[in-house]
Amino acid sequence: MRRFFGLNYEGWTPRLNMDPYSVEPVTLIEEVFPQDTNAYNTLFGGRLLSLMDKAGGIACAKFAHREFVTVSIDTLTFIAPARQGDLLEVTGQVVYTSSHTACTKVSAYTMSKATWERNIICEGYFFFVAIDSMMRPIPVPQFTPSNDEEQREWDKAHAIRTNMLAQKKQQDA
Q1: Is the whole model's pTM more than 0.85, yes or no?
Q2: 138, 145, 142, 146: which is closest to 18 by C-alpha?
Q3: Which of 62, 68, 70, 106 could be disulfide-bonded to 52 (CB atoms 3.0-4.6 Å)?
Q4: Residue 14 falls within a domain, yes or no?
Q5: pLDDT tens, 128-167?
Q6: Rounded-to-integer distance, Cα 127 and Cα 142, Å
Q7: CA 2 vs CA 14, 15, 16, 131, 166: distances in Å
């Protein structure tokens, strides 16, 4: 395997034992407007999914300083609707990595403008692959759980990924 030191044409330096740049979550806040709702004045699921995908992708970029594309979404659970006029808080945080992929747990909440009280409406696990300018997978820093909660999330994401790979292998056979 060839290794480069210094900056290459994409502006990053591959290195062994890369450390994450940031493990902090990314939070987006949006308001639900009329064009975002269906005939029941509740948020379109696709609009929420788009915001969740964006938060997850930005969390990966912040974590690894790489470009990422979505590979899969798993264990997405819609819990409650968001309504026109609600504020949405969507938070993504990297909870698992493998050599070229990162998984974010993304949670979405509604917030009242009067009280700023949050109520969870959706959560899921979004898997992304890091890519170079030629759309080829590239290595990412590795996430290391530092407490029991992070270990539980890592284990859950690892199990989801293992199951996804097993299903793909079964379909390809």
Answers
A1: yes
A2: 142
A3: 106
A4: no
A5: 999 999 999 999 999 999 999 999 999 999 999 999 989 8
A6: 14
A7: 10, 11, 12, 17, 30
